[in-house]
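Q: Please design a sequence for this.
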């Protein structure tokens, strides 16, 4: 177990170093930070002083090393547009994005597994066929179009839910804010969470259904039924457990995708999260914010993949036996 964990951690560190190199290259190949901060009217002396202050007069290797050291300490410099610390700006928006992503992930994973199992067990029923037909909408339609349709139906026509914003929030601690403790915050979260999680829900559901149908045809499931075990025990304890082994990877990747692609949903619903902040950074070529967002998304994917690998080790007993994975 320890060797397995060390190997995965070393792989994660290598990936983060490669992402750090790419993020660092943004400072040198996407615009001139000194020109962006001082403008065209600045003198050469002002530009030289700012370059020295930002450390841009040092060798590239030294700059890259300083970038990694600062990134480990969650320091990404000053925003070129607002002249505020990038870490402070991200921490202000991070609770909104994490709140939206967590609710969307729970919505997608729970309903995806439940619907996937049901459509596999009762694949001939009318409800199962209806669920499979409706799932084509989540797979086929792009996220922004789903968001617009939900706004038109539930906010404009019916007036049940707000069309934009996060609603009223409550501050917890020094920097965390949440809308889960207020009625307007919960109502504002419904449409963005459904929009963001619908594609992942349908993908997980169809994958669970396909894997479940494959497992139900195996010999050990037939043997379990021949032993007289209750159908619920056969389906949930034996079939579902083996179904989830290949599904874990997809679920992990989709959870990272929810955070990475929350940009579209946050833009449609004007959700004050990190994704909307990144769109603003791209518009104004705010390199420190872009680099910090890239590092954050990469770290999310790396951590999720690490957790998925550990879950594999727990769920699949073959990985705990020397040579068993072969």
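A: Design:
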């Amino acid at each position: 177990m320890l060797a397995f964990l060390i190997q995965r951690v070393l792989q994660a560190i290598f990936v983060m170093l490669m992402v750090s190199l790419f993020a660092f290259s943004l400072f040198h190949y996407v615009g001139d930070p000194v020109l962006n901060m001082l403008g065209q009217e600045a003198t050469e002396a002002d530009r030289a002083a700012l370059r020295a202050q930002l450390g841009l007069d040092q060798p590239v290797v030294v700059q890259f090393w300083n970038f990694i050291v600062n990134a480990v300490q969650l320091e990404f410099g000053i925003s070129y547009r607002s002249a505020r610390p990038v870490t402070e700006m991200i921490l202000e928006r991070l609770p909104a994005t994490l709140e939206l992503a967590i609710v969307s992930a729970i919505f997608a994973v729970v309903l995806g597994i439940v619907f996937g199992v049901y459509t596999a067990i009762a694949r001939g029923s009318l409800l199962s066929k209806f669920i499979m037909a409706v799932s084509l909408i989540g797979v086929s339609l792009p996220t922004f179009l789903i968001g617009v349709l939900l706004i038109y139906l539930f906010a404009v026509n019916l007036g049940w839910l707000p069309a934009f914003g996060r609603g009223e929030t409550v501050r917890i601690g020094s920097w965390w804010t949440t809308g889960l403790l207020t009625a307007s915050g919960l109502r504002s979260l419904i449409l963005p969470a459904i929009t963001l999680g619908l594609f992942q829900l349908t993908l997980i559901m169809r994958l669970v259904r396909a894997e479940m149908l494959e497992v139900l045809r195996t010999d050990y499931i037939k043997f379990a039924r021949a032993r007289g075990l209750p159908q619920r025990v056969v389906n949930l304890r034996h079939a579902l457990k083996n179904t989830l082994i290949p599904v874990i990877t997809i679920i992990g990747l989709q959870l990272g995708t929810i955070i990475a692609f929350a940009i579209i949903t946050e833009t449609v619903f004007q959700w004050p999260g990190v994704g909307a902040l990144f769109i603003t950074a791209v518009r104004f070529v705010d390199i420190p914010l872009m680099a910090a967002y890239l590092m954050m998304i990469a770290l999310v994917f790396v951590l999720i993949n690490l957790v998925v690998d550990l879950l594999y080790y727990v769920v699949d007993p073959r990985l705990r036996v020397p040579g068993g994975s072969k």
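Q: Thanks. Anything notable?
A: Strands lie at 170-172, 176-178. The chain is about 75% helix and 0% strand.
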